[in-house]
Amino acid sequence: MKIATYLCLLIAISLNSSHAETLVYQGGDGIGAGKHIVFLAGDHEYRSEESLPALARILAKHHGFRCSVLFNIDPESGEIVAGTPSNMPGTEALDSADLAVVFLRFQNLPDDQMKPLDEYLRRGGPVVGMRTATHAFQIPGGKTYSKYSFKSDDPTYELGFGHQVLGQTWVGHYGRNHVQSTRITIVDAMRDHPILRGVKDVWVQAGGYVGKPTDGEILTMAQPLDGMTPDSPASPTQPPMPSEWTRTYQSESGKQGRVFTSLYGTPEDLTNEGYRRLMINGILWSVGLEDAITADLDVSLVGPFRPNTFGNQTHARGIRPEAYQGFESPIPAHNRIGQPNQKKPKN
């Protein structure tokens, strides 16, 4: 009897530990009722670990989606880390996902964590890619899933996940972070696209990325500004470049998966209502709910949201996923950030 009780206790502890590494917001009534979105947060600089819980809360609270948020986790402390180490427990949540929102950078996940994503893409699951997702993976040649690497030379999967799924691998910066902000405007010919309903006055604080999608429909253009306010002047030497687009990718199952890509998405970007609306609309379109998009759809933030300024390894320390449970806990949980690395990353 004592042995049985002990075993039950061990199982309960194990299940609770595993569950604690994945943040889940249960949806209720709404246009997303019955649908499951999985968010993958794992970059070094742009605070995906703050942006994605904020988006997930909006979609769960206002629109009824069940949202699972996965993070890079330090396996020893159980705390959220920014990009390193490449460890993301809970990717099996993708087995039941209706949409994957990917905000990763240079990940080299263990095979058992890559397998659910590989299977998701093989079945043609829809994808939303944000900012560094163009270079989501950096996996050495010879490994099981090296084809997803952003420099992949696999003849069947050239330039990896970014190129094959999102329509662009990493190209380069087009604006200087913390010096140049970005104004995003709608392409005139695309004004009637469902993703753009109600979208206006979009200004983001992240510096520009080069946008050169291989195909698809370009929805918006990004203009670098010489300053960090919405009324800063446009850079006279940097004309607008594509910033958001849609496309489809061909999966091994034969199904075409919908894709929405945004080259922005820091938590500071999400303080702009126009950008939040653009992202929420893009997510709804990707999961096939474009008919439910209205110009006045609720995209208001849920709970306290006072994001940290993005920077390489300047994430808040000592936070576990359970700190973000519920809709009223602050994001981030605190502002005890690390110091930026002396050498800034090139991407």
Automatic annotation (TrEMBL):
Gene3D superfamilies (UniProt xref): 3.40.50.880
Pfam family, one: ThuA
All residue ranges annotated as the ThuA-like domain in the record: 92-285
Signal peptide: 1-20
Compositional bias of kind Polar residues: 338-347
Highest taxon in the source lineage: Bacteria
Protein name from the UniProt record: Trehalose utilization
